[in-house]
Write the structure tokens for this entry.
Amino acid sequence: MAADDRRILKRYRDLAKVLHPDSYSSEETASKELATQLFARLVNPAYQKVKQERDRAETLAMLRFQVRRLSRQGSIATESETAQKLLQMTMKEAEVFYEQALVELVEHQYQPLQRFETVTQQVMELNRVYLHLKMGDLVIREKRTGLVASAEAKPIQFTPTGIVAKDAPVENYARRHYDRAQEYLKKGAWQQAVQELRDAIKLEADKSEYHSAIGLAYLKQNLTGMATVHFRQALKLNPSDPLALKYAVQLNLAPAQQNGAKPAPQPTKQSGILGFFGFKKH
């Protein structure tokens, strides 16, 4: 999450080699197509965004916002064993463990391609847990140095303009992106719909309808590899998702579960940009 420009460029070049079409034989047409789409639609846009200091700061700010919200809700969920271990560590212990864990994950993030979604989710889960620990450590140090008002202090009770009170309802920005995407889909504006749905997924990655909608937008642009990825994720989140089921046969996607079975556990929220690029802290 704090990689410098040199490491960002190196990671980008490494991924360009891994996902280059020449890395795949003529018999691997589907893999070649998916690799091209992953690089063009995910990795390259992520690089263009994070190499700009302002855009990178905005992305990290969004991730911090998500972590704060999850922390308030007490829902910093951890599905992977690695993230569970990290969550139990002190900040000093977490520094080294986090670094080593990410190095191991990103080394094979796109090899084979079919693993990229699972590994990316693990990367983002580690990022969230690490940031949760780091933000908590900052609060503790502030209290110890007297930068946070003591319990006896009686601050003036008001909410400044632009500051959301702790218990105030949080506007669902993800749903607003999704609603706008629906309007674009009705008009056949596929690229605009994809952009809105990407933003929605960054904020709430556990909504099957977001994934099935972006899968449709990709499919309408003949980007079957990307469409397959998101339709599969939609079915993983909700095996009864109607839009994903509609195209499951066409894309040779097997339903995640038989009818009547309980839905699979939903993964926690994530920010796609840092995850797809596979950044690690330095």
Summary: Residues 138-170, 256-271 have pLDDT under 50 and may be disordered. Residues 33 and 225 are 7 Å apart (CA to CA). The radius of gyration is 20 Å.
